[in-house]
Amino acid sequence: MEVAALAQARPRFIDRRRARDLGERVGLFFAVLLALWAAWESSRWLAESTGLSVGQFEANDRTMPHIHAIVGELFEPSRRNGPLLIDVLWDAALFTAKEAAAGFILGALFGFALGVALAHSGLLQRGFLPYIVASQTVPILAVAPMVVVWVNPRLPDSLKDWGAVAVISAYLTFFPVTINTMRGLTSVDPRALELMRSYASSSWRVLWKLRFPAALPFIFAALKIAAPASVVGAIIGELPASIQDGLGGAILNFNQYYITGPTRLWATNLIAALLGIVFFLVVVATERVVVHRAPENVA
Amino acid sequence: MSADAVVSLQGVTKTFGDGAVTALESIDLDVRPGEFVSLIGPSGCGKSTLLRIIGDLVPPTVGEVTVNGKSARQARLDREYGIVFQDAVLYDWRTVAKNIGLPLELLDWDRAKRARRVEELIELVELQGFAEHHPWQLSGGMQQRVSIARALSFSPALLLMDEPFGALDEMTRERLNGELLRIWEASGSTVVFVTHSIAEAVFLSTRVVVMSRRPGRIAAVVDVDLPQPRTADTREEPRFFELVTEVRDRLREGGLDEDRTAPGEGELVLGEGPV
Q1: B106 contacts on A by Cβ (under 8 Å)
Q2: pTM confidence score
Q3: What is the Cα–Cα distance from B267 to B275, expressed in whole angstroms?
């Protein structure tokens, strides 16, 4: 049966294409990395050799450290006779990752629940959406100290301080999830809804069997925005909470000593960026496993 | 109304826009057990709307609808019918097997019982080897077979079909026509079938209900006395052509506007827009 043979042949063809795609991606990643490195170094070299300056800005080791100096700094002691900077930052990144992960999960769950509620009630949507939007126009730096003051006293000892930071991180996470959940749940094919009606399904069943799976590509698109945002939220949240153990603490610390050691701040920023990318990739990998949609339906 | 009718419509009228448009007017129709009834008519005659009224997917403005002796609403709540749309409307995150088993999941069948039934259905619609495929990996004809299997999964006494083969090419359509008749005979269910193809209606049906242009009314009912079972040869018989001609004449009397027939379509196929 030729149709069956076609069906059998499909997986091998897809494997080969996936391997080629992966190779292309890795190649592209390194090509772009190289190009960014070249752009950084060449613009510094150009500014230095021509003596050209933009306003007060002057290119030198303080304003634009060499990339190799930034990366090299990671493998220098963080202070005299102290551990290597990379070890310090690794611990800080793990600490911040814990806050951000808790914040991300909290924010995603809250954002999803809010999205479901708003999708099911036009009244709620009209009533609350302006305030939800307003919540995101208030700078996180203005909100963070209040959250610490309110949340921290109510937390058990095991969650003290970092729990409050997780809440701040959740504050940045929930918004895109709410908006996309709402959109995803309400953009279901009307005929698919008619079908569920013909089966006399309860609206609870329609939510879990139809609306939620149909909304998953929308929700994952939001989670991809929210994942790096949760890291940013955690880093910023550490500042008013006076937490020294995370990347936020490290940034504050190295910022004070920028004049004497600019590369330490740059190296810390590099690690913070990598943490954001790791969060993003975890979401992408999860989407690959969870979402099985026609290629045209994947966001 | 005959007491044993599977579907009984009495004085069904449907208006849209606060009565500005009358889509259906005074429809009376009984469908008896085991019948295969086609609804055929020009664009906008309300035949798809009529099917949705039977399925309690839209309410009639006036009139009475009973399915298996119950109100249309009660019949829907009791899952008395299965429905197939023009597009397969499969959930693309579910495999073929899980799409077919969806109604059974909603009926809380246990996993083992469900798997057995799904296996039977896959055999019935001849999709062996595709159980674990996703819908987008199938052709249009195969997708529609999944949709039919899903509609039959819980063995409803009534099958409602809204131009199920309208989007398929002529050859696939004829093959699926044959398969549908085989399934109909095997399942013993009653079918109400909406189509805009005269040949399809005559080939499949025991009765063809010809509807007139807006407001949709029943212009004529043509009994199809072709012998069962019908095969590819049925399409060659003189009686088949006589019946096709009769249905076409009734359509013309019902006010079919020839200009509405889309150019390039076969002469037996009428133009059909969204209802």
Answers
A1: 199, 201, 205, 209
A2: 0.82
A3: 21
